[in-house]
Design goal:
- The chain is mainly α.
- The protein has one domain.
- Helix content is about 80%, strand content about 0%.
- Helix 3 packs antiparallel against helix 4, helix 4 packs antiparallel against helix 6 and helix 6 runs antiparallel to helix 7.
Length: about 200
């Protein structure tokens, strides 16, 4: 081991565990969130009375479809950029194709409902990442104001509360996802306009 790598290991060893773990979680928040919400979706679908193997197939496939969709623009351009429109597209297309095949067509709207809050959490994690590295903000932003990614985090958190209320009132299947999709699209597009 050369002196440079040995020095790096020494610095890591000196960092206390209660500091190292939050640093790791912050830097890898997006993939960690993706794994957690995919697992939560599996449990939610299983709790809805579906077989565990089908729930795992749908929840895991949903997470993987988002993982690949977010990279499509970066792979096409070769610049590593992310595509949230690709994520939304995958979040609609994957259940629309998979649920009728694996479960029943009448389960589709309920499956969409179960993905609404996980999608919101993935978006919140991505915007916290943007805030941490200082991207996706308004040009010439004044000091002392919240960054645009943090405003998006607050807006998406509020949307999540409304989605949770739509789920709690036991309304028609598909209502919670519709609430999320409409409000999120307005928030997302408004933020895009502020960035230009």
């Amino acid at each position: 081991m050369n002196s440079k790598s040995s020095g790096a290991m020494t610095r890591i060893n000196r960092i206390p565990g209660h500091v190292l773990l939050p640093q790791f979680a912050t830097r890898h928040l997006r993939p960690i969130t993706g794994v957690v919400v995919s697992a939560a979706l599996v449990l939610a679908m299983w709790n809805d009375g579906n077989a565990l193997v089908w729930s795992a197939l749908l929840g895991g496939g949903w997470g993987l479809s988002l993982l690949y969709a977010v990279q499509l623009r970066g792979l096409k351009r070769g610049d590593g950029s992310a595509s949230w429109s690709g994520v939304l597209f995958a979040a609609i297309v994957f259940p629309a194709l998979a649920v009728p095949l694996v479960l029943k067509s009448e389960e589709l709207l309920r499956a969409f409902d179960l993905t609404a809050i996980p999608l919101a959490l993935v978006y919140i994690a991505s915007k916290l990442g943007c805030h941490r590295i200082g991207c996706c903000d308004r040009p010439h932003m004044r000091r002392g104001l919240l960054s645009l990614p943090m405003l998006e985090v607050l807006a998406t958190s509020a949307i999540s509360v409304l989605v949770a209320c739509a789920l709690a009132v036991d309304g028609p299947d598909g209502l919670a996802f519709l609430v999320f999709l409409v409000l999120h699209f307005v928030s997302w597009q408004s933020a895009k306009r502020l960035r230009t």
